[in-house]
Amino acid sequence: MLQSKKISRLLSQGLTAIPDDSESSSTSPIVTRANAPLSISLLSHEGIPLTTVLNKSVLQETSIVPDNLRVYSLQSYKTLIQHQHQQAEKPVLKNWDIIELDAGLKSIIMSLNVEENDSSNPESVVVGEEAGVETLVESAGSSQDNELYIVLFYLKPFPDAIAKLKLDHIDAALHEGLKGYVRG
Question: Is residue 158 in a domain?
């Protein structure tokens, strides 16, 4: 199981800036609100932030305060759950969603099932593709008590596809280390 410092370090990888085409590959990209997310959080199965990592240099460029991001985390969680309930009769549910929260502020939230998946059960995990981005989708039968959520906040100029790729990377890294983290 991962320690909280390691979880924070893993989450902070999702806040790295994407390089601009004009920047040299040998230099670190200049962090701006257009090329780096604001914040990333790991949420409990009830949507409560467990760990949050802030990109302070980008937050300083905005009027958004960390307390507002906690409220937006809960709003994002509730929106994802609501969308999943609306799709409950579909054979496969999308385990992530992009939500426009406020003028220019977006979040992408993804559920992370930390329970062992039986690869022999074809309903456990299905690989799909949406807008050219590979995604994981889960069957309607997954237990919400075994899920944690990752939410990434970013401003509109930041590309949705890059935000999704960042969450996919974090999801893959956290999946193995968080087994046993939630109550069994």
Answer: yes
Output the pTM of the full model: 0.76
How do residues 20-39 score in pLDDT, each as one tens digit? 665 455 556 566 767 889 99
Asked if the structure places residue 167 within a domain, the reply is yes
Pseudo-torsion of CA 56, 57, 60, 61, nearest 10°? -140
CA atoms of 65 and 178, how far apart (whole Å): 29
Tell me the backbone φ, ψ of residue 135, rounded to 5 degrees: -135, 155
* Overall domain count for the chain: 1
22 falls within a domain = no
Residue 17: name the closest of 41, 34, 42 by CA.
34
CA distances (Å), 152 to each of 65, 86, 173, 184, in order? 15, 23, 15, 26
Structure tokens at 131: 């807008």
More confident position, 76 or 19? 76
Return the CATH number at 45: 3.30.450.30
* Confidence band of 128 (pLDDT split at 50, 70, 90): very low
Domain that holds residue 80: 4-15+30-177
Question: Tens of pLDDT along 56-102?
Answer: 988 888 889 999 999 999 999 999 998 888 877 766 667 899 999 98
At residue 55, the 3 state secondary structure works out as: coil
- 35 domain residue, yes or no: yes
Question: Of 154, 91, 160, 162, whose CA–CA distance to 128 is shortest?
Answer: 91
